[in-house]
């Protein structure tokens, strides 16, 4: 049975991040993708120049419409933008997740707390951080912050060591998520380690830093791949291993694309487009 995975996120018209990246990653990982839009952005590989928010009640309407008709096997949450949208998503998801649980259908939720775009533009209003923490974190099966996002959620300095990464992962897990993956791409090191805090302890995932500027949408892509694997029945630890391997291939093949002059996108279909390389 092909699994159905829903992304709740913003749009990137250049196709490298947001909903567009999510749908590509879903397809590449063999699941059927669906999308609820929270925001429209004007952006390209060089940065974000504008954001137009979807009214919160209409965001909720989209969520409810999908769940009213389609079996949803996993949810990925990306750009939430502000407190009102975070509230709307939390309320709509809480209701449909509770109904699914009552019917014996457990739906994993991957929460990627999108806060800052690659070019530095803010994608989450400061007042929304506490709403996201209080209302959405408890719904998450897996939370996937990078180092600045983990620090912002905890109102702490950015971690500069593995020990601090691990400590923040555990602190975030104490706020409600079943598991937390803190991504170490911002560490000042040749390595790019990630740490997973789960019920059975800490698990480290090692990776060499890839020398490329084509990293637009890596966070969106990883979280979507994680949602796809969870939908197919993988554990959090298994999903992270599979999704990281997929993303590594997508980053390694990014140079085969010629998209923009800034931070280019990863090659989501690197395993399928062999003839185009």
Automatic annotation (TrEMBL):
EC number(s) per entry: 2.7.1.49
The molecular function terms of the Gene Ontology recorded here are: hydroxymethylpyrimidine kinase activity; phosphomethylpyrimidine kinase activity
Residue intervals of the Pyridoxamine kinase/Phosphomethylpyrimidine kinase domain:
12-267
SUPFAM superfamilies named among the record's database cross-references: Ribokinase-like
List the keywords (alphabetical). Kinase, Transferase
Q: Name one Pfam family in it.
A: Phos_pyr_kin
Named in its record, the pathway it takes part in is: Cofactor biosynthesis; thiamine diphosphate biosynthesis
Q: Which InterPro entries match?
A: HMP/HMP-P_kinase_dom, PM/HMP-P_kinase-1, Ribokinase-like
Which enzyme type, at the first EC level?
transferase
List, alphabetically, the NCBIfam families matched.
HMP-P_kinase
Q: What is this protein called?
A: hydroxymethylpyrimidine kinase
What is the scientific name of the source organism?
A: Rhizobium croatiense
């Amino acid at each position: 049975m092909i699994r159905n995975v829903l992304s709740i996120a913003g749009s990137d018209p250049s196709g490298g991040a947001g909903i567009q990246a999510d749908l590509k990653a879903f397809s590449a990982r063999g699941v059927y993708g669906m999308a609820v839009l929270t925001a429209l952005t004007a952006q390209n590989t060089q940065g974000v120049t504008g954001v137009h928010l979807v009214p919160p009640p209409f965001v909720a309407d989209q969520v409810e419409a999908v769940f009213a008709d389609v079996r949803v096997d996993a949810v990925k949450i990306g750009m939430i933008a502000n407190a009102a949208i975070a509230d709307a998503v939390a309320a709509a998801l809480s209701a449909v997740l509770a109904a699914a649980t009552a019917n014996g259908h457990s739906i994993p939720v991957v929460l990627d707390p999108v806060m800052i775009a690659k070019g530095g533009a803010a994608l989450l209003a400061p007042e929304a951080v506490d709403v996201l923490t209080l209302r959405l974190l408890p719904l998450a099966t897996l939370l996937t912050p990078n180092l600045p996002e983990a620090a912002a959620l905890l109102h702490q300095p950015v971690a500069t060591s593995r020990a601090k990464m691990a400590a923040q992962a555990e602190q975030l897990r104490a706020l409600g998520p079943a598991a937390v993956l803190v991504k170490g791409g911002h560490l000042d090191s040749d390595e790019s380690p990630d740490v997973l805090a789960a019920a059975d302890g800490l698990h480290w995932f090692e990776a060499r830093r890839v020398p490329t500027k084509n990293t637009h949408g890596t966070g969106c892509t990883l979280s979507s791949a994680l949602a796809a694997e969870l939908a197919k029945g993988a554990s959090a630890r298994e999903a992270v291993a599979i999704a990281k391997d997929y993303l590594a291939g997508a980053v390694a093949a990014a140079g085969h694309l010629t998209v923009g002059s800034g931070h280019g996108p990863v090659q989501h279909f690197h395993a399928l487009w062999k003839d185009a390389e």
